[in-house]
Design brief:
Layout lengths: L1 H11 L3 E5 L5 E4 L1 H9 L13 H11 L4 H13 L5 E8 L6 E12 L2 E10 L1 H23 L3 E6 L4 E4 L1 H7 L14 E4 L12 H8 L3 E9 L5 E12 L5 E10 L1 H36 L9 H18 L3 E8 L2 H8 L1 H16 L7 E6 L2 E7 L3 H17 L2 E3 L2 E3 L3 E7 L7 H17 L5 E3 L4
Helix pairs in contact: 3-4, 10-11, 11-12
């Protein structure tokens, strides 16, 4: 009895209800659904029972371009896959009596221990029509409210002013009751170009003669009392039931004060922007100084390790090759002693410039300390880093520094180390490059050595 009562209650509802199994097949429907099915081409015997609702949605999604069927299909699949508990969507449905709107609710349910989906369709056409009427009424209300606090001029079909409110007369410093043939007596200029407005270009003339609607055109006017103002000028043609133009409404809003404030704000913003640019330049210079070795222009040691730690972490994470190249200037103390510290500084700058010329944009090169330099080369194995080091070595050896008429040549020694699977810190990699550098020194200087264990 309870089951029969429940069935009667469901059939008495005004909403259409269908029950689907987990394959999407319709297994039961209520009486409103049957009527709905018959009204939309369904079989009067089955009322879509036995049809696969998912397939119906898929076919509609392929046919249509409004996205509703696809959204419904996605919602159903999400519930079937237990990715969501329910799904609701509003959608339009063409009808011989005009457009109709429905809202569909889909939820899971259990019956005798088995899961099903309940699809409920509710006709919301009446609500949608009311909403549209409210929207239209709101649009009209807003137009009226926007016109009330500003100048309003009502014109007849011949373009003659039949009413002008006090706000409009205050804006213009009076009124000129003439037809379109004398609109040239109004003095106005387009604010954007400064060009004088011709008689037939006024919004009133275009509304009366062409039925054009103009909204918020910025105009500078010379008022009848000799003052000058900036206004927003709008024109709207009035029509009868047959569409014939019966007049026009012209709306003026005085924005002189606003434009003056905008100009002051623009100037203030320009001054602030200029100050901000200058501050940014100062900040950029300070940041550059904080990370740059002043003598050579290369990165300093601290900034090198900030970047290198990140590069080391990336290499570990993605298991890409990474090498460190450490080099110094051979017998640099002798250079300082024999030629002076200014000459030594010149050599440091020269070597730095040569070495930087052999690096890529992705590489990091820095002054490590004194006459030592360090380079990190991402995505580069030891043999590739060795080639770079050899190119640097040849470039430095070929360069000449002239000091007090004498030629000064220097050489460099380099050590190369590549990241290994067991490396857990950047420091371990740098230490191996340092060991390789000492090996190059022991080998007689002016050479490159790759770190080898033992």
């Amino acid at each position: 009895m309870k089951q029969a009562l429940a069935s009667d209650v469901i059939d008495a509802l005004s909403v259409e209800i269908a029950v689907l199994d987990l394959r999407g097949t319709i297994v039961a429907v209520n009486e409103p659904w049957k009527r709905f099915a018959c009204a939309h081409g369904g079989d009067a015997d089955t009322f879509y029972v036995g049809a696969n609702y998912l397939e119906v949605c898929e076919a509609a999604a392929r046919r249509g371009d409004d996205g509703y069927a696809q959204a419904m299909l996605d919602g159903l699949r999400g519930i079937l896959h237990e990715a969501r508990d329910g799904h609701t969507i509003e959608y339009p449905l063409p009808s011989p009596d005009g457009p109709r709107w429905f809202v569909a609710h889909v939820t899971r349910l259990m019956h005798e221990g088995a899961p099903y989906l309940a699809v409920v369709h509710e006709d919301i056409t009446a609500r949608k029509l009311v909403e549209q009427q409210l929207q239209e009424a709101e649009a009209l209300r807003r137009k009226v409210l926007e016109a009330l606090p500003v100048g309003v001029w009502i014109m007849d079909a011949q373009g003659q002013i039949i009413h002008g409110n006090s706000a409009g007369q205050r804006i213009w410093g009076g009124a000129l009751y003439v037809g379109p043939e004398r609109y040239g007596e109004y003095k106005g200029w387009w604010l954007g170009t400064g060009r004088r407005i011709a008689a037939d270009e006024w919004a009133a003339a275009r509304a009366i003669r062409k039925g054009e609607t103009s909204i918020d055109e910025e105009v500078r006017i010379e008022c009848f009392d000799g003052s000058s103002k900036i206004i927003l000028n709008s024109g709207l043609p009035l029509r009868d039931a047959a569409g014939a133009i019966t007049g026009a409404i012209i709306v003026n809003q005085d924005i002189t004060a606003r434009k003056a404030a905008e100009e002051k704000l623009r100037q203030a913003n320009a001054a602030i922007d200029a100050m901000n640019r200058e501050l940014q330049q100062v900040l950029a210079r300070e940041q550059t100084k904080a990370r740059t070795d002043e003598l050579t222009g290369l990165d300093n040691r601290r900034y090198f390790f900030e970047l290198a730690e990140q590069m080391f972490a990336v290499s570990q994470r993605y298991r890409t090759p990474l090498s460190v190249l450490l080099f110094d200037i051979d017998e640099f103390k002798h250079c300082n002693d024999a030629y002076g510290h200014q000459a030594g500084d010149a050599v440091l700058r020269q070597v730095a410039g040569i070495a930087r010329g052999y690096t890529r944009e992705a590489d990091i090169i820095a002054r490590y300390g004194g006459e030592e330099f360090i380079v990190m080369l991402p995505n580069t194995a030891a043999d590739g880093a060795c080639s770079v080091a050899e190119a640097m070595r040849h470039g430095v050896a070929a360069a000449v520094q002239r000091i007090d008429g004498r030629e000064l040549r220097v050489t460099i020694s380099s050590g190369v180390a590549e990241i290994l699977p067991g490396d857990d810190t950047l420091d371990r990699l740098v230490r191996r490059a340092d060991q390789a550098l000492y090996a190059a020194k022991r080998a007689g200087r002016n050479c490159v050595r790759i770190y080898t264990a033992g």
